Amino acid sequence: MRMDAGALRLTLGYLLLATLWVLLSDRLLAGLDLSVERLEQLQSLKGVAFVAVTGIWLYLLLHCHALAREQSWLKLKANTERLNLALDAAQDGLWDWDPGRRQVFFSPSYAALLGLSQAELGTTREAWAARLHPDDCENALHALLALDRHGHYQDTHRLRHRDGSYRWILARGRLLLDGQGQPYRFLGIASDITQRRADEESLRQAAAVFDATHEGVLVTDRDQVVVHVNPAFTRITGYSAEEMLGQQPSLLKSGRHDSAFYHALWNALQSRGAWSGEVWNRRKSGEIYPQWQSIRAIRDESGQISHYVAVFSDISVLKRSQNELDYLAHHDPLCNLPNRLLFTERVEHALERASPEQPGAVLLIDLDHFKHINESLGHNVGDLLLKAVGERFSGLLSKGMTLARLGGDEFGLLCEHCQDPAQAAGVAQRLLSCLGKPYQLNGHELYLSASIGIRLFPKDSDSLERVLRDADSALFKAKSSGRESYAFYAEELTEFARLRIELVSALHHALEHDELRVHYQPLHDLADGALIGAEALVRWQHPQRGLVPPGEFIPVAEDSGLIGAIDAWVLEQACRQMVRWQAQAQEQVPRFVAVNVSSRLFGREGLDRQVAKVLNDTGLDPGRLELEVTESAIMANPDAALGLLHRLRALGVRLAIDDFGTGYSSLARLKRLPVHKLKLDQSFVRGLPHDADDVAITRAVVALGHSLELKVLAEGIEQPEQVKFLRQIGCDYGQGYHFGRPQPAVAPAPGPQPVCCSSGHD
Ligand code: C2E
Ligand code: MG
Ligand code: MG
To answer: What's the gap between Cα 95 and its chain centre?
Structure first.
């Protein structure tokens, strides 16, 4: 039993005081010299007083002690209650081991952690140790050795629950030592951390997944500030975590999506809490790439969005291989051309878009006798030949055309813009011509021809099947007509186109073999009948057909692009002729030569440079050249025309508007044109002077021309009364059979008079 120091001090003090009282009071009484009887009375009184005083003192002492005990008991009770409540709230258990008595106190809540009652758990360390997981026994039992220097203890171990499962217990406590440094108590609390461990474990797993996944992960807070990215994010985007944290994901925007796209994305996130789809983003390197992205909104306990998590994968490789697959599915591997599938898709689209104003054509091309080449020279040579044919055809393609290998020796050509049969026939002719040259393959010289079937579209109730079937029957027609030719689905088109094509090649021939001629028609002053100039008009001296008028070949030349060469040739001839006339220094020669400029050339760049060059080459004074431009050519592109006319005028040449009255000029524009002359179209002159409409129009044009300070020339004057009428209304000049037909320029001398005086040619 331990000695209580306070109680000892109290007892010793009492003993001392009582002894002193006994000794001193007796001595005091003896010194009073009292009678024995009195002394005995006082002795008794003193004894009674002593007992009374000590009795009161003892009472007070006991009372104080009882009070103190009660207070400390109340305090203890409150503390115990608090402790129990705290342990209860924390769902923790209390353990208290008394090493001396080899007893352990386990609180009911400790036992409850294992699904047991206090009694079931027992009060010995052995009973407790029996519940330890075999793997944790050693560590748990030696945990005392692992105390820190303050005697603090912490250990995690598994204990078997009533249901047989093991629960992870975190025990924390302290070893208390007595005065001699001997342990006398070891106590602490224990908590069930099974759930926490499981949570930590799944967090660890999630973190490992987060780090190891191939998918990029980006987490932002509710304000879209990036708070987390994973290594895959860095690998895909090139941005490190440090570069991204604190930034907005918009840093990755590629600019490929419009605001409506992002609007829809945010709408989905706000309403459904998730969005997934394809997004094009920009890597740090600047490269734009596609990614498949899923975004989820994460909500906190109060239901408010706290974070957004985006998980994405780079699908550029996938896309590439998809594109490659797509390419393979739609292309012929031998010729590297679109295959039948893609061809029919394109034809279908073209049919959807086509309109009478925007017609097109489908051409099916079949190589003649290709089978023989394959059979006699082998498939290798056949393949090489097909490749070579594909390359030659490809060289002819222009915008809006799709060439495809449909299989075997059959090719298809879709022309999305094909104005008329002639254009389609021209394409077919070029395809046939390009095959014409021999092929050198594996030491063989091979000749090849083809047949082509043409189907124009749109027609009523067109369908893909119908167009292809018609083209196929046209191809059959071409083959049966002796191969190496083309045929239209409709017979008359074939003939029409054939003639046009023949005409074009004959015109080529004509240009090369000098079959073109220039005739000149005189232009007269109506006031005095004097010759003022001559208009150069082209003719074709055809070996079989004789002299062909321009009306028959100029439109074809314009469509085929030959007009440039023809007009340049006429311009040069006319200028040279004018120089020659000037050199004659006679009265009866034209003072200027008028040359027609095709409307097709009028819109083109460089006409002014071309004219300047011819003037320079021939040495003709620019004032002696008049260029005639039709009214419709100007009105087709008035702004470009205005610029060109100004540049031509700056050269010093004269300008006339040809066929005036047929082109619906706007007066406002006419006013601004830098021209010198209006040539009233012959269709209005024909009815003069009797047709009231022609009279009215002629009067109006003359008045208009004069009000704009322009000279007016009337074309196609055939009758003297037309001259008379025109003179009366003040028309300045005239041209027509009445004055003279177009005819070749005559040699100066000796010989007939020049162009202007003669009549009855053409
Ligand atoms: P244009 O420039 O209006 O030429 C006048 C046309 O009227 C000429 O026809 C001429 O022969 C014809 N003509 C002249 N007087 C009379 C007449 O009294 N009665 C009738 N019925 N006709 C008459 P042509 O030579 O057949 O030329 C036709 C058109 O061909 C020309 O009309 C011009 O637009 C075009 N043309 C002629 N030569 C050329 C050329 O070198 N280049 C270009 N681009 N076009 C040309
Ligand atoms: Mg003319
Ligand atoms: Mg004319």
So the answer is: 69
